[in-house]
Amino acid sequence: MSNRASPQAPPQGVRGHTEAPKREPHVGCDGCLARHLSVCASLPQEETRDLEAAAGKLRLPAGATLAREGAPRREVYTVTSGMLRQVRVLADGRRLVAGFLQAGDFIGLTGSTLHRHTIEAISDTALCAFPLQGMRALCERHPELGAGVLDHAFHALDASETNQMALARMTPLERLAGFLLDMARRQHQRGGEEDRVELPMTRADIGDHLGLTVETVSRSFTRLRREDFVHFDDPHHIELRAPDRLRALVQSTG
Amino acid sequence: MSNRASPQAPPQGVRGHTEAPKREPHVGCDGCLARHLSVCASLPQEETRDLEAAAGKLRLPAGATLAREGAPRREVYTVTSGMLRQVRVLADGRRLVAGFLQAGDFIGLTGSTLHRHTIEAISDTALCAFPLQGMRALCERHPELGAGVLDHAFHALDASETNQMALARMTPLERLAGFLLDMARRQHQRGGEEDRVELPMTRADIGDHLGLTVETVSRSFTRLRREDFVHFDDPHHIELRAPDRLRALVQSTG
DNA sequence: CGCCCGCTTGAGCTCGCTCAACAACAGTGG
DNA sequence: CCACTGTTGTTGAGCGAGCTCAAGCGGGCG
Question: Mean pLDDT lowest for which of A52-56, A105-109, A238-242, B236-240?
Fold first, then answer.
């Protein structure tokens, strides 16, 4: 066996309690913080009426489960705030975190009628929900929307292959450095500070994303800190001290 | 360093000589062996005129390079016969084989104006080529075609994440077993025998796909053979002796 | 207050990598 | 025709990076 099976997350929620996801009517795309990042951006401002009509707003507390691997899909989502993880689990508990979803990210990049991941909120999260049916109709009426979905699929594919390279051929330190740079870039796009990364997920989540154990993730953080690549007191708020030196660590092909 | 850098393939071709790719006029989709598998299948038989008009036929000898990572993209392709590999390389030579392409597979699943992979023919290969421009026009005229591309992107994404799970959390034996089963399934869809797999690629290619060294791939084959999961004399023609026992090895979530 | 969870650190071991050798084979050139 | 060379696949021996096991610390929550 290559890796210890992570202890399964509790079947529901975290911190003992599980609030049910809260549904609210959609309030309009105009003030949406994620609009410029999401598939919705492929539609001009004036043509969001159709979207708004179909959309529902959804709030998930940290630890809540949005969807289970293998369960039927009824909706697609756009994340407006917070963070979620997409998880696949083997029968014996070995876990892969396929990705972390943030504002603007799209949930529903599959042709399957079933969910391909279990999707869990890491922090308190808000989403826009669109029924699958309505989505199909919307895409026919607004081809740009379909193009937007395709574009997100292409990006997801590229990210997935980049992570394959990390998993297949890079050292723990390189994987973690690459991960931090990627998260920093994405959070900077979303208005975060350039050299700060928020990591609300646990070290186990990061490990299951990078193909490492918790211990190796922790040790790699310690090494990055000791050599002054990063600084942190709280393990969930990382300051990148030398992004360029970090980039040199990852030495990609560009 | 996690892995030895594979010696770079010769810049052009293999076996000393490199024939230039041969271009021929497209002869029509009717007799195409890959039609039912490819994006072209999303168009009804009668509406292939447009496709045929735009298409060119391309033949590559084994070892030839179709595209280089980072080079500008001008066309998309559908594979009609043979096999190719999609490769990404780091500056120091560490290599990832992102996938093996066979009849019906689509080349061009990216929104980038540049190629995301170096693409090399493993065996003699035939492709249909469509200029990028024409493709856009075709997709607007036939929305089903765009949907077909989206569907291929979804499948590629799923395959990529399945491989991520293998790379992150599975043993060499499990990775190889999963790989053989996947190749067998795909070749069976294409009319191959159910329990035979053709592996024209080298052990190094398989290693760079599964995140292993040549030696470990070879040893894993030997183990599978010793325990009668597979049988082979020629390392490129594998007979699966007990697909069900192999599947049990891979114990997925379904 | 006590328990549990998450993070970190240490000690030791194992599995897959590194290094090395060899056989089989194909292509090359004398 | 055969010696020579380079490539591919296989196997062995040994090593070290990352995993396993174990312990401790701090914070949050009941």
Answer: A52-56
Q: What are phi and psi of A25, to 5 degrees?
A: -65, 150
Determine the pLDDT at residue A7: 62
> Pairing state of beta strands A230-231 and B22-25?
unpaired
Note whether residue B111 is domain-resident: yes
User: Is A42 contained in some domain?
Assistant: yes
State the nucleotide closest to B225 in CA–C1' terms. Answer: D10
Length of chain B: 254
Considering the domain architecture, whether residues B75 and B194 belong to the same structural domain is answered as no
Instruction: Say how far B223 CA is from D22 C1', in Å.
Output: 34
Q: How far apart are CA B232 and CA B220, in angstroms?
A: 13
Positions of chain D reached by protein Cβ under 7 A: 7-13, 17-22, 28-30
How many separate domains does chain A show?
2
Q: pLDDT below 50 — which residues of chain B?
A: 10-18
Residues B178 and B93 in one domain: no
Those residues with Cβ within 8 angstroms of residue B248's Cβ, 6 or more apart along the chain or in another chain: none
Residue nearest to nucleotide C26 (CA to C1'): B15
What is the residue range of A89's domain?
A: 22-162
B53 and B158 both lie in a single domain:
yes
